[in-house]
Design a protein that fits this description.
The chain has 758 residues and is an alpha/beta fold. The protein has 29 helices and 22 strands. Helix 12 (235-244) links the parallel strand 6 and strand 7 (251-255). The chain binds a DNA duplex (15 and 10 nucleotides) through residues 63-65, 90-93, 116-117, 142, 197-198, 200-201, 261-262, 264-265, 363-367, 386-387, 389, 394, 423-429, 530-533, 553-556, 577-580, 593, 615-616.
Length: 758
Amino acid sequence: MTEARIDYARLLNSAQYEAVTSIDGPLLVIAGAGSGKTRTLVYRVAYLVERGIPPESILLLTFTRKAAMEMLSRASELLDGRCQRVAGGTFHSTGNQILRQYGDCVGYGNGFTIMDRSDSEDALGLLIDRLGLKSSGRRFPKKSTVNSIFSKMVNCSLDLDGVLDENFPQFLEFGADLQGLYVAYEQYKLEQRLMDYDDLLRHWWRLLEEQPAVRKLLSQNYRYIMVDEYQDTNLLQAEIIRLLASEHPNVMVVGDDSQSIYSFRGARFRNIMDFPKLFPQARVLKLEQNYRSTQPILDFTNVLISQAREQYTKYLFSRRESEVLPVLASVGGERDQSLFVVRALREFQLVGIALEDMAVLFRASFHSYDLEVELARAGIPFAKYGGLRFAESAHLKDVIAHLRVLHNPLDAVSWHRLLLLVEGIGPRTAQRLINWLMTHAASATAVRDYISEQKKTAGMTRLEPLAALMEEITDPQRTLVERIQAVRSYYEPIAMRKYDDYPKRFRDLDFLEEWAEQYPSLQTLLTDLTLEPPDFFSHKADLRESGRLTLSTVHSAKGLEWRVVFIIAAAEGRFPSPYASYRTEDLEEELRLFYVASTRAKDHLLISYPMRFGGFQEQDYGGRPSPFLQSISRRVLQRVYGEDFHLKLQGDDAKQPERRKNPTGAKPEGSPLQAQRADYLPGQRLDHAEFGRGVVLKVESHHAVVVFEKHGKKILELHIPSPSTGAESATRRGADAERGRREDGESMGAGVGKPWDQ
DNA sequence: GTTTACGCATCCCCG
DNA sequence: ATGCGTAAAC
């Protein structure tokens, strides 16, 4: 057991080794993009298990369950199968498991059903109606808005007024109504044994906070806690961690403040900065060596993130040299962009890069519609991630509703949904039936009793098929798949009336039926469908083997990497999202999002923006590249026209003579802090006499900001040769030139001039 | 009194 | 393409 089989010191760099072997006490690891964060966690799991720590007492919290499973199976390969027994998953799924055991401690008796976002909104809609909040004349917030207000309250530990003041001042006048609605919603969920996503965290927290005995038990159980993607946790989650660690200090959190992209869900990257306050003895380690990307890609991403107002302290460097710069390609319209991507994909394929090693990323799911059409036409297989989820489409929710009332007959949200499917039943009749069910008999088969009781009323015969179905699927003899089949044969005629495109939807139901086979119980199936909904290519391994191109939102691409990454729709009005263009902190998050997208690339990064694009706000944007890119030097980001793009164009030495001929940059004479301004250009790497290797971030009139590998960010004073020369940095000239073009109204699409780069 | 049909605006990211 | 409010139909 004590015999070390893994040579950790040899397999890890010194910072990683420290992170892996410091197993006792609080530890914060700041891990830059591609710095081997996952590797570190995997080795740490193996190290802990190898040292004889029972795997069941290790808790690994990750952002998706997929990530957790992947890490555990890698750890198992490294060591042995014991690693699979480590407890792990998302905060929500872990909360779910714990609350299934201790639900009665927080007022939920035996069992509950988890609602997804649209279920919450349905419930809120019903309550808004019931409380008559809509008729009060003025415009009451939409139910989706109400949902996000309530969610912010929970995730940011604020009261209603706090959230309204901060984020929704336009709804301050509805304070009292919203407060009443909040209370009603709480009660509604409790009565019906429903929990929304936030409840899984909130009740988990309550359990730990209010039940010292349970807290002690759980904390003693999970002796070693690891949290991945800590920058995307919210206040409530940080509190949960603190409480889980009440009996020991063994908490390791890993994160990167530059990659915090979930503030809409309450994430606060400040949790990282505050970790040492929560755990005063915390050690802090930084992983700064990047093993993923080439140095030119990192030069670009370093400069990109330096535009953030919140200053970060990481400097990423790589040993992967390359001549190939990231490219910003301008294309005429969305169709031209798709053609550009397809053409470039083919070129990469020709030099031996497989489709599964490439990805196209975008800000919003609909940005890839045109490309999807073009890929289909070109016969290029792809898999898309992000956007609407499988279990959220109407037809699946319809089928699932029938299964949910089976599991939880109190679930009025699902009753409501499935009753409205019956012809002749509207909200009124549905409500009456639901009221009757709730007061008389809490069982799915009680529909029959209701019919008998109401026999006189016309229309009750319409409920006959439903009553028969409920009786059939309640039969304990039936397997899960048989029940789904029964629901389908009841539902499909309804769907045929409702949807013109029913064949496509029936194929989804086929998939559901197949998917359900692996589940031992209805409850676990229902939980997974809301917590970890399947996508059609559920394991990344499948995807890699399948020879498909990946299309993904940036959010869904978090933590992944590809040899070639395209970022499309990097245009003003697209990225940053126009919804996030008002508040500085929202814009900063968009910048971090762009940073996340860019740091996914290992070898090639190609960013494109259409000059014209469709959509309702078309007129407002003049076809400029994303503001995040506009002032970035051509030394780190090459500009081309999409139609001119060719692999050879990249890395053409003739285009970047000064960069290639003097790659180590300036070594100023005299004072180490002085240099001629012309020696310093943003993005330029240099080897400084005193501070060693670094990269120039910004050049101002009298100083330059340089980040050094060993010494971090330094401000170097610039010696200016002579004012009469009017020396201007390349950035300045570049920015002015670009602005000039725009103001002249010179259209790039007109084909005047060639790549701006020369 | 209830249900349904139709025209309307809206459309980001996610456990 | 789905979710809303309103008007016609049962």
